Amino acid sequence: MADESDISDDASGWDAIDAALEPIYGDREPYHVGTVLPYALGGRDPIHGISAYKNAEPVPHWHFVTYGLSELWAKESTDPDVSGYGFELTFRPTCKAKDKKPPNWALNFLQNLGRYVFETGNIFGVGHTLPLNGPIEQGSSTLIQVVSFCHDPQLPPIATPNGSVEFLQIVGLTLDEMEAISSWDAEAFLELRSRDDAYLLTDLTRESWLADPQFAGKVNRRSKKDGSSCDWMSLVLECDTKSSPVRVRLQTIAAVGLRQRLLNRLPYGRTFTLNGKNATVVFKPGKQSRMKLVEDAITITLREDHLVSLAKSLQPHVGIYPIPGLKNVVLEVVRTEIKDKDGNVVEIVE
């Protein structure tokens, strides 16, 4: 990336983003970087530019804002009401007071997210949560390995000549915080946290927010009251539909998550789905427990007392776990093999 110095006078979408930032930063010049070769012409970076503002309050941090997920120049998309993908990304990692330049890892991370959007067409939204499969800063020891998205607390949605744009702020999370969100609701979780941290800063040195007993207690009480908004889990899943009883196989590392999600979905009248590469299992609440099989798709309806019994018995250990009330299907927990990037098994969870 290189410093970008000349912006076309007719960049109405770009100007609209600048106008949204003006009430916050006035005429302060940000640290700005832009692409050398546009993505449309074969460049690697899909985001045209990224501005970073250094802030001292509430603690030193950078405020990144992207330019390029919305339409910055002429209108090209077919939806007249939405500009481009309809959003730009913001990000607020903490820093040291003496830092003069934003970290390269954050700039690269934002471009990677932009690349994901451009290449897949999948867009982000408030409450979306994305595991990163490793530390947010590659090679670091940070516990931040997940991101979620909320509205930027200082940048409300704007209307531009090319359509509407909202500012989605990236918030770094730990793995146990992601698990808590899966058992409850990402938007509600971040709103609760924002009462103590209005800007939802991403601090790579922090421990889990759930290490605070008071905050963890609030999350636990709210999740029990509200139930989970997460209606599916993607995992390594196998269904042996030829056996008697039918066997639903999942790995040890997924057992606890399944137990929590069932307890936070079915008692609230909500379904929960396990998605595997070649199999799908849907759990439903009902007055009578039963199993329905259609090819490799299994629907398991559970009466509430049978659900509670299953949740108590299911453990993250290898074994066969009968499903109360059903004789024609069982859960089979199999060992997890954790592999390195070369495919070598480095850990076995049994």
Provide an overview of this structure.
The protein has 350 residues and is an alpha+beta fold. The chain has 7 helices and 19 strands. The strands form 4 sheets. Strands 1, 2, 3, 4, 5, 6, 7 and 8 form an 8-stranded mixed β-sheet that branches. Helix 6 (252-263) runs antiparallel to helix 7. It is elongated and about 70 Å long. It starts with 11 loop residues before the first helix and ends with a strand. Mean pLDDT is 91; it is low at 1-8.
Largest sheet: 8 strands, mixed
Order of helix and strand elements from N to C terminus: HEEEEHEEEEHHHEEEHEEEEHEEEE
What's the rounded overall pLDDT mean?
91
Quick one: overall form? Answer: elongated
Instruction: Give the termini distance in whole angstroms.
Output: 46 Å
Query: Into which percent range does the helicity of residues fall?
Result: 10-25%
Q: From the helix content, strand content and strand pairing, which structural class follows? A: alpha+beta
The radius of gyration over CA amounts to 23 Å
The total count of helices amounts to 7
